[in-house]
Amino acid sequence: MPVLDSSIAQLILWALVGYGLGSVPFGMVLARLMGLGNLREIGSGNIGATNVLRTGNKTAAALTVLLDGGKGAVAVLLARAFAPEDSVQVAALAAMLGHCYPVWLGFRGGKGVATFIGIWLALAWPVGLACCALWLAAAAVTRISSMGALVAAAGSTLCAVFLGYGTTLIFGGLVTILVFWRHRENIVRIRAGTESRIGQKG
After folding, report:
1. Mean pLDDT (whole number) for 135-155
2. Confidence of residue 194 (pLDDT cuts 50, 70, 90)
3. Is residue 82 within a helix (H) or strand (E), and if so which, with residue range?
4. Burial, 159: exposed, middle or buried (Cβ in 10 Å; 0-12, 13-18, 19+)?
5. How many angstroms separate the CA atoms of 149 and 133, rounded?
6. pLDDT higher than threshold 80 for residue 21
7. pLDDT > 70 in the chain, percent
8. 146 within 8 A of 195, measured Cβ to Cβ
9. CB 25 within 8 A of CB 100
10. CB of 112 within 8 A of CB of 181?
11. How many other C-beta atoms are found inside a 10 Å radius of the C-beta of residue 108?
């Protein structure tokens, strides 16, 4: 874990900043702006890019990935510009929680995969690239987005340790648990062989 250099007030401030950034539901915003309907009534009802893709609009899905990843990265980079590393990791974790449990949507948010990747790219870019590679490989082989997410999350903390980012071990473990928890229903469907494939409209 990082050295604890921040005051309680700093940690609270960056937790609020990270949560606020993470809680912006870009998938829903883009769907509305682009006339794609209410994501809650499409496919899985999730607000993330995979469900946006089920509308058939690849541009909207790509933008959702970029913006959801970007908000996680911005939370990290803002905190790093003004605060010690412990505040940076608090902001990163809060951004994940904001995406998964946004107050604006009754705490019913997304599963955090793009935000997870964006955070790692900003926090420790070699780990972020490794997560991208793991996701792409698993998703390409299985054609299941959630499988890519689970493989990337499972491998992220190990990658952080092997790539020399041991101070992120606790953070990495927490966000990995969060990703798995948010995908618990997907895990059941994967085991049953009923999980949706990439590009499949719901």
Report:
1. 92
2. confident
3. helix 58-82
4. buried
5. 11
6. yes
7. 96
8. yes
9. no
10. no
11. 14
Half-sphere exposure of 187 (CA within 13 A, CB side): 10
Whole-angstrom Cα distance, residue 115 to residue 111?
9
- Residue 199: the pLDDT is 55
Tell me the whole-structure pTM to 2 decimals.
0.90
The burial class, CB within 10 Å (0-12 / 13-18 / 19+), for 4 is exposed
**Residue 202 — very low, low, confident or very high, per pLDDT cuts 50/70/90?**
very low
C-alpha distances in angstroms, 69 versus 114, 189, 194?
A: 5, 26, 27
134 in Cβ contact with 148 (< 8 Å): yes
Give the integer Cα–Cα distance in Å for 173 and 166: 11
* Three-point CA angle 77, 78, 82, nearest 5°: 115
